[in-house]
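User: Is it possible to get a 3D structure for a protein together with its bound compound? The compound here is glutathione. I've pasted both below.
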Amino acid sequence: MTDRLWGRASSVNVQKVMWALAELGLDYERIDAGGRYGQTDTDAFRALNPNARVPVWQEDDGLVLWESHAVLRHLAARTGRLAPGPVGDQWMDWGVSTFYPALIGVFWQVVRTPPAQRAPDQIRRNIASLEEALTILATGLEDRDWLNGDAFSMADIAVGAGLYRYFDMDIPRDPPPAIRAYYARLADRPAYRDAIMTSYEELRAT
Ligand SMILES: N[C@@H](CCC(=O)N[C@@H](CS)C(=O)NCC(=O)O)C(=O)O
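Assistant: Yes, that's possible. Here is the predicted structure of the complex:
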């Protein structure tokens, strides 16, 4: 057997783990689950993750983990590489509490809602919340290249994964210069391009 990643490659939370595994050069098998691939509602899947969500990380030795950022922290501890450190850790939690809810608010309206059902006022409010979150993120990048300081870490994977969709979605955009520069640094990484800068058309509602 080999370590397994359960989850569809169109999920940004699955993508974070795919990106981390690529940066670390670890072998694994990925099994499509969630969304159009189903499986998450089966008893077998709920035994792995009672939340019926992806990703799930299942190791050869029996360890099963859900919550993408917990998987990232575990992989850092297991390999002794890309540790986020206390400041990076703070940004990882901020991703869960603030950045991803704001990003999903926009993504859901602009991509996952059929055009006829979109609410323009809601979209404007959600974009404003997302811009506010990006202004906060910019404070963490004012005089540093990465969220943990000088070195790329799991914190950049946790938070940076969402930026591709922000820059790719069909929305008005005026991000702080530090966010544009950070995104350019991320997009320089082959593993970011492979795992993150990929089509999300299968999620689009028409
Ligand atoms: N906080 C969780 C969120 C997990 C989550 O919401 N996953 C979504 C995909 S991004 C999901 O499973 N949606 C249902 C589905 O794909 O069927 C994490 O970071 O792992």
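The two ends are 40 Å apart (CA to CA). The chain has two domains: 4-79, 85-197.
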